[in-house]
Each structure stands twice: as structure tokens, then as C-alpha cells.
Amino acid sequence: MNRVAASRLSVVEDSDLPPASIADAVASIARNELAPLAADIDSGALYPADLLRRLGGAGAWGSHRPDSRGAADLRCAIASIAALGEVCGATAFMAWCQNTLAWYAMNSSNPALAGFADDVASGKILGGTGLSNPMKSFFGIEKLKLKGGRTEGGYIVRGALPWVSNLGRDHFFGTIFEVEDRPGEIVMFLADCSDPSITLQPCKPFLAMDGTGTYGVQFRDAFVPDGLILAEAAAPYVKKIRAGFVLLQAGMAIGLIRDCIAIMNEVEGSLGHVNRYLPQQPADFQGLLSDLESHTMTLARDPYNADDGYWRAVVDLRLQAGDAAVAAAHAAMLHCGARGYLKSHRAQRRLREAYFVAIVTPATKQLRKMLHDV
Is the pTM of this model over 0.90? Predict the structure, then answer.
């Protein structure tokens, strides 16, 4: 078929560990191995492929696999992303990408992808998600940028996506094309970045997150075999996975807010006498964070809930998480004062990362439109 089926390593059995053990292992890796790399990842000097594979070995990418009853629980995955986000927002974003790729494969009914899901969960295969444009298209913000036509054994896909993250030449990502001769009919598939007809184009430097393996992707009549089709009828499949796609992003915000509270507390001894006049204090954000975490974990227990009220609650939570991340990072900068303005201080990095949480799809303005439309 293709290289997905060519080799299948045995999956590290860490997925059998209690969820708390996985989250604790991820937190230990974040503190001891990720922290020294955070500045280089932020600047774009490093894409941490080895670390991402190491996290896969610790069980970070497989904890949300549906069980034998067809139920799934995202709490451990979100807790793990938050532990990474407490140290490095860029890595938390890549963790979301990797977890989302696993989520796609785990929820596909294509039997050819069972081994692929295992390999993503173990970290053998790395990759991301190309749903930014499709997610916007579903809500009338953009038109789908990829078109595909049926051919023997699969589809021929053409078009371009401006930004897809957690990529490299041996990576995969999930995305959607519209069937050319059947307008409105969409297919979700896995793109194999090793295919010579799929080109990764470096992006201009970003404000932050440059070490996230983000590229523009060009499809030049790329052949997508049936074995890489996630869903021939993508609309009901997307409805099933959408809550997981959005909820997993909450981990980025939770981890960042935790560190912003820590930053404010770190300067309390030297600047508390004047910082007490600022309108937002660490205790305010601690209360906000506790509410956010509690609400997130409640929703994360039931990601397949088809109720419209549940979906609205997920969208509203994601909006709150983005707003809270920006507010906490802004407050951390004000609490630090001039020292936070130094490039060497992480407060300015957290502020740049917080803006990313607010603008990554679904962005603040899209979330507000979604709530309005619902």
C-alpha cells in the first residue's frame, strides 16, 4: 500500500499506565528535558522531534484512545499538554497537533489505519493537522483550498494550505478536500509528506513558535490511496471528532496560565509593594484557572456527546481559555515590569505564546461567530 503498512513497531505499553502516571511522566520530561530547549524552540533554532518521540514512549499520545465500549476520555491528554505548556507553549502546540493526528486515526473506520494509529500513539510517526482552512470553511469564513478527484485506488488531490504545523519530510497530517465533480461533498485523508508531489514550503518568521515545524503545503496532483482515507463522508466524521479537536487545545491555555501565575508570584518578594496596586493579582488568576480546569475536565470525559448544548459549551470554554491566557500573560508582564521586557525573560515569551492561543484555529473571532451561529 504505502509506507504506513511497510513497517509496524510494537506500541509501548505505557498506554496501560494509570492516566496520572502518564501525566506525571510528561511533567517530569517537561521540567528536566524540555525546559533547557524552550528558548531554542521558540526562536526556531530547534524542532524537537526526538523529544516528541520520547513523549510518545511515555504514553503522551495514546491516552485518549477510545476503549472497547467506544467511549473516550481526553483528561489525561489535556493534562499532559498542560504540563508541557507550563514550560513551553510551542511544544504544547506540537503536542496538540500530535494528539489530534492520533485522534483522527483512532476515530477512522478505515481498517487500514489501525497500525497507523498505533504508530502515532507511540511516537514512531509524527505529524499534525491541516484543518485550519476546513474549520473556517465550515463556518463560511473561507472556501476549501484542496480539491480532489476519484481515480483507481484513491484520489488525485491538488491545491495549497498556507500553514500546517508539526511537519517534516517523514511526517503525516490530516486534512480535507472537496470532491471536484460533487460540490459540497468532502473527504478527509492523511497526507504523506514524503510524497514528492507534496511540497513543504518554509514560512516567513513568526512572532513566536518558529520551532513548531510549520510549513505551507502544496499538493501537485498528489495521489492519496484508499488506505490513507480517514473518512469518505467527512461531514459526520468531523462532527464526531470536533469536540476533541477543540477541547485538546485547552491544555495549551491551562499550562500557560499556570506559568504566568508562577511568574507573578516569583516577583512578589521584590515588587509586591508596588504590584499590589495592579488590578489583577495572582489569586484572581488562580481562581479563574481552577474554574477553567474543572470545566475542561468535566467536558473532556464525554467528547462524543452529540448534544448541541454540549458543543456550545465546548466552544464557549475554548473562547474563555484563549481570553484567560492573554489576560494572564498581560498581567505577568505588568507584574515583572522592565525585567519582563528583556528578551532573556520568559514573561515576554509567554505573552507572545498567549496571543497564539487566541488566534490559532478556531481563533477568538471565529469562536464568537460560531457561538453566534449556534
Answer: yes
